[in-house]
Fold these 3 entries.
Entry 1:
Amino acid sequence: MKVIVFANQKGGTGKTTSVINVGDALAREGKKTLIVDLDPQGHAAVSLNLDTETCVANWLMYPIFNTIPLSPEIMNQWIRTTRRENLYLLPGNQMTAKAQRLLTIEEKPINYIKDLLPAIRRMGFDYLLFDTPPSTGGLQEMASWAADLAVIVSSLDYLSADGVSGFVEMLKVLHTQKRWSGRLAGVLPTFYDEQTRTTREQMTHLQKAFADQVFHPIHRATLLREASAEGQTIFEKDAKSRSAMEYGALAMHLSKLT
Ligand SMILES: Nc1ncnc2c1ncn2[C@@H]1O[C@H](COP(=O)(O)OP(=O)(O)OP(=O)(O)O)[C@@H](O)[C@H]1O
Ligand SMILES: [Mg+2]
């Protein structure tokens, strides 16, 4: 099971949109894919037209209140089908924030989430994608630690470089001080609009800083906004659209990285 975290401490950069659409692209390629929504806003569920639920919080708090180890049977109570073949969701809601506070109070270590993954691994998933909240803190760090690959989702329509460098600094600390086994897959530019100066400046900036680790950008597209508002993936909304091609190509690219 390949684990990929999508992150940026800035809000509204396209993290959830990217997770949902990469997830559906992988699922359509026949890969059994689980999206885990670590954001208390619960937008991953909303974007898939499902209910937000306390599942992530229950999962995170399980070892604190139980002695029986997590198993696929226990995970099955919380993992939802999405009415899409091969695509599954562990939904979250505002209780995820409470779970995070409890983990902080209990001083849970950085490997806490990684240690919760073997039960999910045994369920035969090919991919686990973490959607993360727009903040820094325990859950992002724990999810990054559990990940094989990290994707930084960077919006090009405003100066979002701070969000990128904050997360990169965190990954460096994981790498050098704690011997993280994962790696930065790359930076994903979103809200790309070649007509605007900000886009061109931001692209140049990212390419200088990350060279070949900058993915092909995702264009700003009304269709993407409409799809998530309607609870559809871009492949359901319009599989022939440029956005669908872009997310399909990103999923393909990520599937080839080791
Ligand atoms: N490429 C795009 N073009 C146009 N609209 C987009 C694009 N990507 C995302 N959006 C829209 O922008 C809004 C924010 O996107 P999204 O929810 O994916 O960001 P996020 O980083 O997950 O936000 P948050 O930090 O609040 O979790 C949503 O309404 C979404 O539909
Ligand atoms: Mg989001």
Entry 2:
Amino acid sequence: MTVMLVTGAAGFIGSHLCDALIERGHRVIAFDNLSMGRMENLSQCLDHPSFSFHQADVVDSDTVNSIGAEAELIVHLAAYKIPRYGKAIDTLRINTHGIFNVLDLAAKTGAKVVAASTSDVYGKNPDLPFSEESDSLFGPSTVPRWSYAVSKLLDEHLALAYQEAYGFPVTLARLFGSYGPRHHLSWWGGPQSVFINAIIKGEPVEIHGDGLQTRSFCYVSDTVDGLLRMIENHNANGEIFNIGSVQEISIRDLAFLIKKISKTRGDMKLQYVPYETFGKYEDVRRRIPSIEKARQMLDFEPRVTLDEGLRQTIEWQREQIQ
Ligand SMILES: NC(=O)c1ccc[n+]([C@@H]2O[C@H](COP(=O)([O-])OP(=O)(O)OC[C@H]3O[C@@H](n4cnc5c(N)ncnc54)[C@H](O)[C@@H]3O)[C@@H](O)[C@H]2O)c1
């Protein structure tokens, strides 16, 4: 049994990770300010004797230090994601101050830190698939969307610099589009979440840009499996890993696939929203990971097909919006 501090525990990925850690016999100290997470996500863990929850802000260093003092391993997931809708300051503040506090704690206690980064750190790099050694290519600072990628890239540099300076192990997970039950029922949860809502309700599906931009979607049990391998495998120490699915799909095709799997009646109406609607905005045209490193070093392999994952997610989402 390892004592683990999980920040962002009440969020989408965090709550599934907590379920898995408890099931594997670890003690979990869950930490979340509930700004985007929900206690309901943790309902499976709440009564477990090895689980405790603390509503607290990761930006507050004293709180992080006192709540995390006993932790032998810290999984840092607390973050703000999408600056497109005007949360750029929160994104930059939480994503940078948060990791400073987590790393300062680990520098004192020697705990291993596994931190969530993002596929967005590859930015507009046109060379696919992205390997962990690929370049980061961002647009100008006048485009707020890059602030998320920049904050996560700074997190990565900070984690590696602290490891070098203080000697505790860090592992960085570059997560690619995770989806599944408990994802947010808004754009915060990703396009699949919004598309499922619209399709179930028979409303127009909002496509940003021409819909030919591509992404890959990884079912949350596979994302969590990747994180568990990074948590439990010493080979992962000091390393960065892409964790995601290698199946590339355009956003428009994703809408058609969800429509087909949901077996809803009637035609689907696509409503194209130009990027200009979001002010000065740039999108990533294609995004697909190489997961060779995680395959070789961690024996990681996503198992849930997109069809099956979407089927389960649609089923869950139907229950949520009824
Ligand atoms: N979901 C994805 O597809 C994806 C892709 C790439 C990277 N990531 C990263 O994975 C991590 C988890 O993402 P998620 O999808 O579960 O997001 P989420 O928003 O569901 O979870 C994040 C959690 O952090 C909490 N939080 C935010 N600010 C906080 C603060 N100041 N103090 C304490 N808690 C705070 C929120 O309440 C929320 O519960 C994030 O770091 C995110 O950047 C996710």
Entry 3:
Amino acid sequence: MRIRPETKNDFDNIYNFIKATFETAKVKDGHEQDFINNTRYSDKYIPELALIAEKNNEIIGYIMISKTYVEKNDKKFEVLYLAPVSVLLEYRNQGIASKLINESFKLAKKLGFKSVFLAGDPTYYNRFGFVPTINHDIKCSIPVPEELYKNIMVCELVPDALKGISGIVKM
Ligand SMILES: CC(C)(COP(=O)(O)OP(=O)(O)OC[C@H]1O[C@@H](n2cnc3c(N)ncnc32)[C@H](O)[C@@H]1OP(=O)(O)O)[C@@H](O)C(=O)NCCC(=O)NCCS
């Protein structure tokens, strides 16, 4: 298996891959593939952080990390947003998503980014160092019931990345 950044030639295959792999997702909105397309044509897109895992020229995993921000009192602080990460059904539970997450975080750090936000299951994302954003006094731009606050998470790529940062994260 190798991990590499996506190129234009991959876009159609990624669209179909995401659509298919999210059919078996626990949580989905059904528009994950459109979110990726829209992100590519926005200033949130970071081509180096849209990665494919491939084996024998087939896409078996994908991750996109894009730009977003935490806002407070009209001040915006740039951060990253992980969505989506996805693995072909028959390749799950072999550590492929973990490799995509670790590789993209390594690259993100090299690019100078300091924190990554996401909405997801804490039992999975805790292992990468994600904690609820509420621990940092950061709430989500989308209304979330209090019992799901724990699912809005952030991972500091460098120690104290969020020191002094609070407000609303745009998701
Ligand atoms: C979530 C997903 C990306 C994990 O990929 P993977 O390559 O199987 O992940 P890894 O091999 O790195 O990790 C497997 C672990 O994740 C756990 N896991 C998988 N999906 C999970 C989920 N939705 N919630 C909580 N835990 C999950 C597995 O139980 C396993 O746990 P264990 O290591 O304690 O046994 C994959 O299941 C997938 O593509 N799902 C459909 C799309 C999706 O839901 N994406 C996440 C939201 S953006």
